[in-house]
Model the fold of this input.
Amino acid sequence: MVHSALMAQTLAADSRHYSDGVIWAIRNQALVENTQGNLDKQMDLTMKALKMAEKSGQLHTTGILYNDIGNILVEQNNPAQALVYLKKSLLIKRQFNEQAEIAKTLNNIGSSCMRLKQFDSALYYLRESEKLKLSLHDERGLGFTYENIGLIYEEEGQYQIALTYLQQSLQYYSTSDNKPGMGKAWLNLGRVNTLLKHYDTANGQLREAACINATLKNAKNEMIYYQYLAQLDSSRQDYIAALQHYNEYTLLKEKFFAVEKQRIIANTKEKYESEKRQAENLLLKEEQRAHLATIREQRILVAVCSFLLAVLIPVAVLLYRLYKRQQELSRQLNSRNAEVSQQNRIILEQNAALGSLNQVKDKIFSVISHDLRSPLAILEGMLFLLRDNKLERDQFQEFTDELWRDMKNTAYMMDNLLNWASSQMKGIRVKADDFEITSIFNREFELLQTLSRQKEVRLSHQLLKPVLVYADPDMIKVVLRNLISNAIKFTPAGKSIHISGQIKGDFLEICVQDAGIGIPEKDQHKIFSNIYYSTSGTQNERGCGLGLPLSKDFVELNQGCIWFDSQPGNGTSFFFTIPLSEEDTNLQGYTIVVQEQMN
Done:
């Protein structure tokens, strides 16, 4: 509805003021995009309006559009570039002596200087804006100006002065009934009073902010509220509450940035689709013009030839030749259409490839933003408390085993993610060679024994006498690590895991058998699929769902097979085969037993 109204406004512009009407219609459309969070679209539309205003010599409109572009750049976190446009806008507005517009631009310049840590310059421009707004009784604008001044004094550590200005900001926001401004003001006051150690006052002010935000549903302000509340709890030495609120802040932060990421992806996709449609429309229009021109020429020729046919016989010959020419053109046109169809097929194949790469990118973003950030956020919180001596070292020591296990699982998850991304995006070359597999068993056991002991899970393996196999050793190492670490992940403490191997024909068959919780029958079809099925372990270990599909790919790339047998509640056995080396012909049927177990 908004876009339709703006289009109607554009078409209804008076012919004598056509350029001015179109410029303001485009500018209004840009402001609508801002309310929807589409900053890129707003910038494109505003730049388009600015070029038209500059071309038609509309200096007043140009000054306003310079200010709009400066505001967009500030929101895009580019204050240095924003200052260039804002100062141009200020020069133009001073020529027209529009006090209200000058006050807005002065405030915006001060805000940009503040973001650049140029506090003296920021205070100068904000003071100038304050004088004009006081003379104009601009209560809403004074709320923004006093908020910025208060934040500068807070940055400089002058908390009492900052408190005075932030209270004035709240007063003007309240007078002008600016609910979003009041919410920010209560948050700022709560933070400053925390720094001044006025804890009860700070707590009440943060609660006021929470009440306002419950109505506005502002995700960013809710995230900031829990951040400031965690700082308040930490200052009051209520570290348990601080950690709880910090975890709430971390979850909201992840959710906020996930929404931002989806919005950016959607905007980028929409922009790409729009540009693609425009290019296709231009191509179709050009083809249509060419076809219409050809049709008009053919109609003229046919009319002339029909007239002459009734007069002279030679005209019939000419018409015949023209007919043959038309057939040739038709043949060429059909040939060209076939070429265009081929190009369309190529484009569709490229789009499918781009879609596949986009899924890989989304999976990588999902794992990094959710599965990898969560353990790091927990570790960051613990180190934050330890660094500020708010958590005793012996208390911290109680968490080290769990932290080590989480970081080890995260490292394995990162290895799987990198291997999977490489295989999906550019492929992995198999570097097969003859190697002795028992040595790889031993190295992986040494790496995983510590993890199994911490979880109190017993590991044992029954191996063949040293056997030569023909495969890529790095890929087989990844398969072993994934299957054994998965077994540890889903095996409760006190249970055991057994790995065995035996020669069957020209292959070595390896079995990883655990006494864990098993896989539900309804989920067994997802294990090796591209659904990337993942659940938490018996001690809430996290995974990204890539290990088993990646293991399947690696085994099959090395001419082997992989399968499993699982009984829910009674454990799971994973099997895979590796081709034997042609040199290893004398070892079949001969086995040794080696056991690695917990102390």
The two ends are 73 Å apart (CA to CA). The first helix runs from residue 2 to 11. Strands lie at 433-436, 458-462, 468-471, 496-504, 507-514, 562-567, 571-579. Confidence is low (pLDDT under 50) at residues 1-18, 585-599.
